[in-house]
Amino acid sequence: MSSLRGDAGSTQSKTSTEEVREILDKLASRSSCREFDSSLISPETLEDILCDGVEAPSSCNQQNWHFIVVADPAQKLRARDISGGNHHFSECSALIYLCFQKGWTHGNLSIVQSVAGACYHMMLSAHLRGFQCIWNAGIGDQIALREMLELPQTFDVIGALAIGRAKVTAPKIKAPRRSVNEIFSWERFERPEASIYPVKEAVAYPFWEIRNDSNPFALWDPRCWTWDQLADFRGYSVWAKSPLAGVYVSRRQGDALEAEHALLPDLPLGAQVAEIMPWGGTSTTALLNRLRSNVDLSVVELSNNNLSFIRERLSREGHDLTQVNFDLMVNGQLPYTDASMDLVILPQMLEHVPNPTALLDEVVRVLVPGGSVLASVRNANSAYGKLWKAEESKAQVPNQGPFTPLSATDVAAWFAARFEIDQEVGIGISATGDAHVMTDDACYSGRLYAIRGRLA
C-alpha cells in the first residue's frame, strides 16, 4: 500500500487525506473474478461504464479505439466456445471486446497502450459500482471472432473485458502482488535476480520475433534456471487462473491422474504422505479423493504463492484442510527430517527441476525403511516427446515453469539405483489424446511414465 506523504508541489487539499486514502484503498481492493452469477446489468449502466472508460488518455488524442458490447446469451456462448472454453464468458453479464483501428499511432504500440488504459478505466468504474470483472487476452481464434463481431479488416481485437456480479461461491482473494521494491528502481535498471528469468544468449531480443507460440530465446531446460527463479516464476504464474474447483484439468489429464494414482500403495493408519510441487493442486485434489481421511498429507511447493493458491483451490473443491499441511521447499531440500515419510509423490515434476537425481536422493533421505515413492514424468521417448521437441519447445515457457521431458528408461535406472521397483506403467499412446495404460516393455513408450518404488 502506498503512503500519502506530503509534497511541496502537490495540489492535494490538506483536508482530503482521509478521502484520498479511502479512494486509493478502494481501487486497490479490485481483484479479478472468473465466477459470475449470469445476472443482467442494464444497457444504460454498461454504457456509463464505457463512458468512464474513454476518459482515459489516448495516443495523439486520436481515440482510434472501438468497444463492442456482447450481452446476448447466445453470443456469449459463442464467445466462450471461440475462446477455447473460458466459462466466465458465458456467465458474465456482458463482454466488452477491445478493438482498435490499425495504421495510426502504431509506434511503440501506442494505440494498444491507449486501449489498455481505457480498459482499466472501465474496470475501475465497474469496481466502484459494485460489479466484478476480469480482462482477458485469451479470446481465441481471431478469424472466428472477427466473423462473430463483423469486424472489418482495418480493425483488430486484442482482448475482452468480462463484467458481472460474482457468484456467492467465487473466491474472495486477490492474486499476490510483488513487493514494490522488486519492480521499480531509481535512475537505472535494478531488479532482484530471482525475478529475471533466463533466456538464450543473444545480441538482441527483437520484440516482433517473440510470440507465445514461437519464442526463439526461451529456455525450457530447468538446469539453466536457479531454484529461486523457478519459485518466482511458478509462484506468480499459477495465479493466471482463479483457484476455482476444476481449474487446470482436462478429461485427458484426469484419466491420466487416475492411472497414476492406481499405483498408490496401501498405507497404514496415520501414514505421513508428501506430494512435491503439484503447482495448481489438480493432482492434490485427485489424491485427496483416494487417500484415507486419517492419512496425513503434506503439500510441498517452491513458493508460498503456490501454497496459498492450492489451499484456496482445495477449499473450493470441498476438502477438509485440517487433513493437509502446506510446506515450503528451498533450494531443492525437502523440509522433513530423515526417515519421516511413508510415501512421497512426485507428480510430473522431476522434469521441472534442475537436478532430478539430487531430488531423488532427498526422497531416499526422508523415507522410512520400507517407505514408497510414486513418480510420473513426461516421457521423451514417446509420441509426445517428439511433439514437444518439434513444436511445443519452440514456444514460450508455459505457466507451470520450464521443463524438458525425461527418458522413461533413464528414470527407471535412477529408481533402480535407489529403490526396489514395485510397479511401472506407461500412460497414453498418442501425443495428446488418450490415457491408455501400457505395461511390460511398452510402458517405456507412453506419453507419461509412472513408477512406484520402495526403500529397502
List strands and helices in order, with pairings.
Blueprint: H1 17-28, H2 43-53, E1 65-70, H3 73-83, H4 88-91, E2 94-101, H5 110-128, E3 132-136, H6 142-149, E4 155-164, H7 180-183, H8 227-237, H9 251-261, E5 272-276, H10 282-288, E6 296-301, H11 304-316, E7 324-328, E8 341-347, H12 356-366, E9 367-378, H13 383-390, H14 408-416, E10 420-427, E11 437-438, E12 448-454
Parallel strand pairs: 5-6, 5-8, 6-7, 8-9
Antiparallel strand pairs: 1-2, 2-4, 3-4, 9-12, 10-11, 10-12
Question: What can you see in these coordinates?
Answer:
The protein is built from 14 helices and 12 strands. The protein is α/β, with parallel strands linked by helices and 456 residues long. The protein has 2 domains: 29-164, NADH Oxidase (3-Layer(aba) Sandwich); 251-454, Rossmann fold (3-Layer(aba) Sandwich). An 8-stranded mixed β-sheet has the order 7-6-5-8-9-12-10-11, with helices on both faces. Strands 1-2-4-3 form a 4-stranded antiparallel β-sheet, sandwiched between helices. Helix 2 (43-53) packs across helix 5. The protein is globular. The mean pLDDT is 94.
